[in-house]
Design goal:
The chain is mostly helical. The protein is built from six helices and no strands.
Length: 241
């Protein structure tokens, strides 16, 4: 497989100068966004270390602990999907996006692992996943008061997390290459990001912990932006009807 520094652009794309300019511009946006996310994470961690000195430590069944556990699982699947597509395509734009998603979500997963360790809590919860999302929101907190699944029903503790790809979908992606892999990855990752935004929004409605709120807001902002980018990229790779 070609290294990221020396990609092979599929035939037809390199010949379209206008499209290349758009691709280059988006690649720059992705790179800048990656640096910005690292800065946000450092600032959030620094603020959190100071602010938590005056805040009560979250309990094992708190929204903060549930979010930290569940979002780690969610993010690590995002890393997996991103690394699969990097090995399945030579498209520079998709590979750069995959690398950005993998590094950002791995860093954030490590940050949430650190929260639980600092709070003296187990990495494994005593309740089914997403139980924290079924509890009432805190009055005046950002986010929605109620969260529903894709079919419009209430979240069920222990059910699949929002936007999480199924094992069959992950294996399907592993078996694809080229543009087919790019399209499937973008389709799965758009849904994956939408689920992450929903989970981040849910903890914003249920927590005032500054370090948790800072990361959740950065997830909402960055992944909403990436959803727009990936939607555009998917449209470019989908044949006209």
């Amino acid at each position: 497989m070609t290294e990221l520094a020396d990609p092979v652009i599929p035939a037809g794309i390199a010949d379209d100068a206008a499209r290349e300019r758009r691709r280059g511009g988006r690649a720059a946006v992705i790179a800048v966004a990656s640096v910005a996310l690292v800065v946000v994470a450092i600032v959030a961690f620094s603020i959190g270390r100071l602010s938590t000195l005056a805040e009560p430590t979250p309990t094992s069944t708190s929204a903060e602990a549930g979010f930290a556990r569940d979002m780690q699982v969610h993010h690590l699947q995002g890393v997996e999907l991103a690394m699969i597509v990097r090995d399945a395509t030579d498209d520079e734009e998709v590979r750069l996006l995959g690398y950005d998603i993998a590094t950002t979500q791995a860093q954030q997963a490590g940050q949430m692992y650190g929260w639980l360790a600092e709070w003296g809590l187990s990495q494994a919860g005593s309740e089914p996943s997403m139980t924290w999302m079924t509890r009432p929101a805190v009055d005046g907190a950002a986010g929605h008061d109620a969260h529903t699944d894709a079919e419009g029903g209430a979240h069920t503790p222990g059910a699949p997390m929002p936007g999480l790809a199924t094992p069959a979908q992950v294996e399907e992606l592993r078996g694809l290459t080229g543009v087919e892999a790019e399209r499937r990855f973008l389709d799965l990752m758009i849904a994956h990001h939408q689920g992450a935004v929903e989970m981040a929004d849910a903890v914003l409605a249920r927590s005032s912990n500054e370090v948790v709120v800072a990361l959740a807001r950065s997830i909402v902002d960055s992944q909403t932006s990436e959803i727009e980018l990936m939607t555009e990229m998917l449209a470019e790779r989908t044949p006209a009807a």
